Amino acid sequence: MTYFAKLCIEGLRYNKVRSFLTGLGVLVGVGSVVLILALTTSLSAHLGNQSTDRFTVGLSSSAEANADVVAALATAPMSARVEAVRLRPDVSAVEVETPGRTLSVTSPDGSTMADLRCAFDDNVEVVEGRPFSEATGNVAIMYANPEFRESTQVGSVIGIDGAAFTVIGLTQNLGPDGSTRLFLPQRAAEHVQLTEAQASSSFTVIVRQPEDLAETRADVLAQLNDGIDASLKFVDFSAEEGAMLEEMFQTLGLFLGLIASISLAVAALNIVNVMYISTLERADEIAIYRSLGMTRNHVRGLFLMESLVVVTTFALVGCVVGYLIAAVILTLVKVPLAFGWTTIGLLLLVVLLVGAGGGLYPANKAAGIDPVRLLH
Amino acid sequence: MISLNGVDKTYRGRNFEVAALRSLSLAVPQGQYLSVVGKSGSGKSSLMKIIGLLDFDYEGVYELSGRSLRGVGDQALSQARRRIGYVFQDFQLVSRFTVRRNLEIASVIRHGSVDAAQVAQGLEDVGLADKALSYPDELSGGQKQRVAIARAMLGGPDLLIADEPTGALDGATASAILDLLADIHQRHDCSILVVTHDDEVAAAAERTVELVAGEVVRDVLR
């Protein structure tokens, strides 16, 4: 068996470049599939882990729902229901999204627009720049959001209702509602119209024990839906969102995996082609083996082994390469790598079957070579 | 050892039919050095293919060591071929392997593992022990044929078949090969079958059978 394996390695070294290029196709194919699987699995798992201790509840109504009821539920403080949930022993906190006022603000270069919650306050404190008391004209103070540091700097000019406002300062103050992003001096209220933000009937429940999330969620929803109008229903928005995102990633992963699998299929066809050419080139060598008494099965096994060695070696390297690239990408986007060993194992099994299947035809051809070809 | 009885071999094409062997009968005892001589088309190659278990499309009876191998499976056929050593006109060495590796492969195929001592002895017997690590392309024609003979004799086959063993060699080298075959005949108890068109090569054997148009026209035992 050892010498058989040696003969196999010798066969691969017959044309090292060709063997390498054949294997490279397998490496790229397997690496692509592993990369896509690792990325989609990790992103999907990360989304699932994001809300291990909380869920968002909102109101869902049918078309026939009584609009007055919806409005009453939506605009009323919902304090009774929210307070009941907040008082639960298994609930740590409840975060309610409060309605507010927004402005449509254009970025300094005019390329983007955003609706920002706004408040008129002459006395907002600044951590950079100067307060409203030291400025005149169209001026604004913005929340120093680290994510938008580049676009919201002191001296930036933003557009509001077609007028240019200069950002004179940055603040850490988020206003009374905790979500104000833009402050204007009181005098601006005379000509700047704020838009009333849509009232929201959703709130986020944070549980005390993340391991009890599912049970708590079920109990809270049952509690909220108790006694409610039949056409209305409190639902778990986060679960739906999460499920939607998870489904999206799974579909994307499936689609991309399908495309990557095409490269794997091409690599398999290449194996058939290359091994067949090798059979033709080594026909005399095979005939010598047969004349010495090597059986057809041994010849077939030799060529199959060559095919499997190439496929297995480069498939394993492809797995490692795909995994490493996924690890680098996920590290850059700060998402932990969730590694599906079962999936990788199944993939390797498929690759081995492909290698065996791809090598079978040339191996059978090799086994059929007759030593009589050596005679003149 | 070799027994042919009424063997007919016909090659058939779309528009032709050629009788290569006509009711040929021949008996070769164990250990005999036999040469088969004839012009091109005489049937000597067809005879060699049948004796060497390379062709089973014939009529009549052929038995090797008292056994007919027509219709047997590949396993039995391969096993029988391990008891036959082939020497070809153009040597047929695997050029990407060293001389030693060429013999080691034969050892593995015939015995299941490398018998290093046997390989070394085989090269010693043909005077090429110092060429063990050389590649076939680095050898002369005579040296290549010696390696081929060493490979064919590995493990002590019952029958050595040489197809025009001196066809690609010059006079002096050819003589050396014939001397080697004679030496093998003296030291080993294997039958030797040399197929040739050269009367001088045929005369080196202890028995010569001449074929003309697929029939034995002369059978000389020296």
Q: Give the radius of gyration of chain A.
A: 33 Å
Strand order of the largest sheet of chain B: 5-6-7-3-8-9
Percent of residues in β-strands of chain B: 25-35%
- The CATH level-2 architecture of the domain at 2-83 and 157-221 in chain B is identified as 3-Layer(aba) Sandwich
Instruction: Using the coordinates shown, work out and report the CATH topology of the domain at 2-83 and 157-221 in chain B.
Output: Rossmann fold
| Sheet with most strands: strand arrangement of chain A | 3-4-9-6-8-7
Oligomer: heterodimer
Unreliable parts of chain A: none
What is the terminal separation of chain A in angstroms? 33 Å
CATH-defined superfamily of the domain at 2-83 and 157-221 in chain B: P-loop containing nucleotide triphosphate hydrolases
| Proportion of residues in β-strands of chain A | 15-25%
Number of domains of chain A: 2
Helical proportion of chain A? 40-55%
Most extensive chain contact?
A: A-B, 25 and 32 residues
Rough outline of chain A = elongated
Shape of chain B: globular
Q: Strands, helices and their partners?
A:
The complex is a heterodimer of chains A (376) and B (222).
Chain A: H1 2-12, H2 16-50, E1 54-61, H3 67-75, H4 79-86, E2 91-96, E3 101-106, E4 113-120, E5 128-129, E6 139-143, E7 157-160, E8 163-171, E9 182-184, E10 195-196, E11 203-207, H5 213-225, E12 232-236, H6 237-281, H7 283-291, H8 296-332, H9 341-367
Parallel strand pairs in A: 4-9, 6-8
Antiparallel strand pairs in A: 1-11, 1-12, 2-11, 3-4, 3-7, 3-10, 5-8, 6-9, 7-8
Chain B: E1 2-12, E2 17-28, E3 33-37, H1 44-51, E4 59-64, H2 74-81, E5 84-87, H3 99-111, H4 116-125, H5 141-153, E6 159-163, H6 171-187, E7 191-196, H7 199-203, E8 207-212, E9 215-221
Parallel strand pairs in B: 3-7, 3-8, 5-6, 6-7
Antiparallel strand pairs in B: 1-2, 1-4, 8-9
Helix pairs in contact in B: 3-4, 3-5, 4-5, 5-6
